[in-house]
């Protein structure tokens, strides 16, 4: 078969597989680990063939996964990373040393797992694919971003080498509990008897850690601001990502790498290839255009600290998020909103409903690309445009 035709057939089969996987989103709201564990047993427990780090929390866990992966790779470790959600393709969710899973490998795993006699949600299916893929690629470590909670999460089917919890915020109250203590106890479900790193020393997390006999460690102190120059223990270095909150995330990652291997002496070199897509990511200039996937009030508060007065905001959020509070926080510095909609229809709130929560100048432009063009025109050559509120929105803009 000609190579071009074979590639086309693979692409078509891949798209069909992805469509089927997305159809599995209905039903289970909080992926339970029971069916995940059953499936992995049928696959001869691939998750036991390497060391696993579970990274949970409300905000910052995606960045910590990226940072820890880079620090491990710098020490010649082969590292699998599992992240969610993706921006443009499901293949982003599972990577080995920064390389996305190939369509061919994706399809092979999809076919094998789909043939099992199990009932899996989308997230469970993808988690099983990741654990299996990492075994087949013979990784040393798998750094796994936990989903919504922790205790019942599909990733939480292992005895991890290390658990990391970045923080406990206001997100997912409907599923994890109305109080911070309830949400913390759910997220603390990834704590086992092995060491745990806490980005914030929250009382309930400490209590659960002590109950399980885990050694508890806080994050390292990294000084810095919205720029890329940071300071750790008197040594200055750069990281190629922006956002004042990244110094906190890096402090958590440094504490984690110290327990797994060691903190590299040359952090400039160790983190030179670091990428955190969709996190205070500058996409262009004239005007300055920034994308950030902040999707809850506490994350939005962080990015607003680094944004200039008078920025123009392109915004969308899912209906399950506290978008009214996010809009209110952004209004502190924004001059105008362009409310839009992402192309993932189940993950987008109607632009008009978002506008009802706004108290400053706004327009509703449903097409995200058109909204961005109009926002840039509105900002002028020397202004700033920020797209935020949802990683699904960023995915649509990238497409």
CA distance, first residue to last residue: 30 Å
Uncertain ranges = none
Number of helices: 15
Percent helix range? 25-40%
Number of strands: 17
Beta-strand fraction estimate: 15-25%
Overall pLDDT metric = 92
Class based on secondary structure composition and strand pairing: alpha/beta
Q: Note the main sheet.
A: 8 strands, mixed
Describe the strand arrangement of the main beta sheet, using strand numbers: 4-3-2-5-1-6-7-8
| Overall radius of gyration | 21 Å
Coarse morphology: globular
What does this structure look like?
The protein is α/β, with parallel strands linked by helices. 39% of the residues lie in helices and 17% in strands. It has 15 helices and 17 strands. The strands form 3 sheets. Strands 4-3-2-5-1-6-7-8 form an 8-stranded mixed beta sheet, sandwiched between helices. The model has no long low-confidence stretch (mean pLDDT 92).
């Amino acid at each position: 078969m000609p190579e071009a035709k074979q590639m086309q057939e693979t692409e078509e089969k891949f798209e069909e597989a992805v469509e089927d996987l997305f159809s599995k989103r209905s039903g289970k709201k909080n992926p339970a680990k029971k069916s995940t564990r059953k499936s992995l047993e049928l696959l001869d427990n691939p998750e036991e063939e390497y060391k696993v780090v579970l990274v949970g929390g409300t905000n910052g866990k995606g960045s910590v996964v990226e940072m820890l992966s880079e620090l491990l790779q710098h020490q010649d470790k082969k590292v699998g990373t599992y992240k969610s959600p993706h921006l443009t393709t499901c293949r982003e969710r599972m990577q080995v040393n920064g390389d996305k899973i190939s369509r061919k490998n994706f399809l092979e795993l999809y076919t094998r797992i789909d043939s099992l006699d199990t009932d899996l949600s989308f997230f469970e299916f993808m988690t099983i694919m990741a654990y299996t893929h990492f075994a087949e690629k013979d990784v040393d470590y798998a750094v796994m971003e936990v989903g919504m909670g922790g205790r019942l999460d599909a990733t939480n089917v292992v005895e991890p080498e290390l658990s990391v919890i970045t923080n406990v915020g206001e997100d997912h109250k409907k599923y994890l509990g109305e109080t911070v203590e309830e949400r913390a106890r759910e997220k603390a479900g990834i704590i086992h008897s092995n060491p745990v790193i806490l980005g914030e020393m929250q009382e309930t997390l400490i209590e659960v850690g002590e109950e399980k006999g885990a050694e508890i460690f806080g994050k390292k102190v990294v000084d810095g601001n919205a720029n890329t120059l940071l300071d750790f223990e008197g040594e200055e270095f750069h990281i190629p990502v922006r956002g004042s909150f990244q110094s906190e995330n890096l402090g958590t990652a440094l504490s984690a790498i110290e327990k797994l291997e060691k903190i590299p002496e040359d952090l400039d070199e160790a983190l030179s290839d670091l990428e955190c897509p969709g996190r205070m990511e500058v996409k262009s200039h004239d005007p300055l255009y920034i994308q950030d996937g902040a999707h809850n009030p506490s994350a939005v508060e962080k990015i607003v600290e680094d944004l200039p007065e008078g920025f123009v905001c392109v915004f969308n959020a899912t209906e399950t998020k506290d978008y009214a509070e996010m809009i209110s926080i952004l209004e502190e510095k924004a001059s105008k909103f362009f409310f839009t909609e992402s192309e993932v229809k189940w993950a987008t709130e109607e632009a008009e409903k978002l506008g009802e929560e706004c108290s400053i100048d706004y327009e509703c432009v449903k097409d995200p690309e058109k909204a961005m063009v109009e926002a840039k025109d509105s900002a002028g050559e020397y202004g700033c445009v920020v797209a935020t509120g949802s990683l699904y929105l960023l995915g649509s803009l990238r497409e």
